[in-house]
Amino acid sequence: MSDQIKHECGIAMIRLRKDPQYYLDKYGSPLFIPNKLYVLMQKQINRGQDGAGVANIKINTSPGTRYISRYRSIEPQAVNDIFEKIQKKYKKAKKQAGEKGVLDAQWMKENVAFTGEVWLGHLRYGTHGENSIETCHPFLKQNNWRSRNLVMAGNFNMTNVEELFGKLVELGQHPKEKTDTVTVMEKIGHFLDEENQRIFDKYKHEYSNEQLTHVIENELDVARILRRSCRDFDGGYAMAGLIGNGSSFVVRDPSGIRPAYYFADDEFVVVASEKPAIKSAFNVAYNEIKEIQPGHALVINKDGSFGEHEILPARERKSCSFERIYFSRGTDPDIYRERKLLGKALIPQVLKAIDFDLKNTVFSYIPNTAETAFLGMIEGLEDYLAAKRKEILLDGKPHLEDLEELLNFRPRVEKLVSKDVKLRTFITNDSDRDAMVANVYDTTYEVVRAGIDTLVVIDDSIVRGTTLEKSILTTLDKLNPKRIVIVSSAPQIRYPDCYGIDMSKMKDFIAFRAAVALLKERDMEDLMELVYDKCASQHNTNQNFVKEIYESFTDQEISDKVAEIITTSEIRAEVKVLYQTVESLNKCIPDHLGDWYFTGDFPTSGGMRVVNRAFVNYMEGKVVRAY
To answer: Nearest to residue 7, comparing CAs of 468, 329, 460, 326?
Structure first.
């Protein structure tokens, strides 16, 4: 994506289902399990590069033994930083106990951190607030009772943090922060405490307090805790938690907005935000990797037994389509196929934009994640040419082209744009910085015929348009093409996301800026005030009033205005912008219909309130988040 945006975080969990000695005997190294978690996290590094964290819990340790370990880092290579520290602990243990000692699971559990049965990793994109160690997951809620300890990490944003915070205050708590991470953890922690108390009260006349500790740990009903905790949540979430007794869970929102997958056999239960991470780390078949169902939690008990439990009734499935378009790795076979379909679906628009003149058109993509959609677009062109040949050769339709040329013709494909990763735009003066930004991308010269060729360049999505305006168009225009056609494999982004992606301010969206410009041109600015009044006065509505801003214009009118906005006075070529249609998007990705950033159809009431609040902020000149 040419416009870099921060987005959903990543989670990784490993639960050993056998005695730790089994793994040391079978795999011959105490680093075997942490190495697996390392691969799980590195294969999801696309999901978060602002920080990382790892937590580990040992099951059935003796009192006086530290059983929860945690490292967090905001170093540039945070995952490497964490696992280098873990490896140092193992090296120190080897010096202390020798080769045999580090293969003794009991000795390792008693003497070395990060040797427990339950592992949780997290990759963070700082979509909210500062980036510091304190904001990195996993978070830890501590207690002297083992079964009241809670470690949490997640990929989520809540739209109703104020409401959740208020409920905690009503319970008599005094939360230290008003953030979704803290409020969610404290809410789950509250009901974890109540579950402990419920079991304690049930058996307090039958066992001693020391015995009760083990009874509680074995009888904790994690699904019950989550049902009571999650009923007030409004947002998109895949939240992972470890309890001090060794139980663990991953719970998913009822609309299935945020992804979560798992694999289980007799040795492991493994959870990750993306399938390819599990595939790479454990070399299992894709059909063995299952999806945690919307509104369900995968609960792994202290004894290693596990199951999916309904926590909240599932709503209409609205899995994030941006996961498929851009965020998740394209090595997932389903995502790879979907991205190719997105590129192919654009062919009718592309042919029309180039006046069907394939002979004088060069096709390319904006590195690097758009490459798969580009391959699909080229496949679509090949299909179009095959159909034309069939018309002439088999159907006998008349033609003007030379037959031999038609049979041998192939679309002209070139790599026109590459990013110069070594060039840094460190100059502070705005005008000088813009000049430097224009050189961040480089181009391949002498492959475009000046004044003759049209360039068609595909991107995953056009969010803000700033990189196109300040860099990519300038770079392409140096080739002196007759026309530049920028193609987006995603539809127009018109609305903020409040479920995990860092797209929260209306003014950031070039499609919104285009609609506002059209309103001004047509003396329709009164509509802005009318929409503002509705948004400002009806706080608890389930209606998205901002839709009215776009209803006066066709998609094409907005696309044409976007092209006008990004075309600076220095650009000599004609510029066109094409967007995927929502209808085509849903056909290409039928199982992931979360399209609220394109349509404004938010899956939760909190989302509707956020979009209206974002418009109020825009009208009042407030450069703040709406959630």
So the answer is: 326
Structure tokens at 24: 């040391």
Task: Give the tokens for residue 578.
Answer: 């094409």
Average pLDDT over residues 331-343: 96
End-to-end Cα separation, the chain, in angstroms: 25
Residue 13 parent element (H or E): strand 10-16
DSSP assignment of 553-576 equals S-HHHHHHHHHHHH--TT--SEEE
CB 3 within 8 A of CB 465: yes
Q: What's the rounded Cα separation, in Å, for the pair 553 and 517?
A: 11
Which three-class secondary structure state does DSSP give residue 523?
coil
CA 62 centroid distance within chain: 40
Angle subtended by helix axes 526-537 and 605-619, to nearest 10:
130
d(CA 223, CA 229): 10
Section 542-552 average pLDDT: 96
Helix (H) or strand (E) holding 261: strand 261-264
Taking only the tens place, the pLDDT of each residue in 606-625 is 999 999 999 999 999 998 87
Separation between Cα atoms, residue 563 and residue 312, nearest integer Å: 44
**What are residue 295's phi and psi, to 5 degrees?**
75, 5
Confidence of residue 117 (pLDDT cuts 50, 70, 90): very high
Rounded Cα distance between 2 and 474, Å, is 14
CB atoms within 10 A of CB 371: 17
pLDDT-derived band at 535 (thresholds 50, 70, 90) equals: very high
Burial status of residue 523 (CB atoms within 10 A of its CB: 0-12, 13-18, 19 or more) = exposed
Share of the chain residues as helix, strand and coil, in percent rounded to the nearest 5? 45, 15, 40
Residue 104, C-beta contacts closer than 8 angstroms, at least 6 positions apart: 21, 24, 97
Compute the C-alpha angle 347/353/357, nearest 5°: 85
Summarize pLDDT for 32-70 with one digit per residue, the tens: 999 999 999 999 998 988 899 999 999 999 999 999 999
| Arithmetic mean of pLDDT over the chain | 91
Phi-psi region of 247 (alpha: psi -120 to 50; beta: other; left: phi over 0): beta
The rounded distance, in Å, linking the Cα atoms of 260 and 406 is 48
Nearest Cα to Cα of residue 501 among 155, 113, 121: 155
Q: How far is the C-alpha of 319 from the C-alpha of 287, rounded, in Å? A: 20
Residue 352's Cβ-side half-sphere holds a number of Cα atoms within 13 Å equal to: 8
How far apart CA 495 and CA 601 sit, in angstroms, is 9
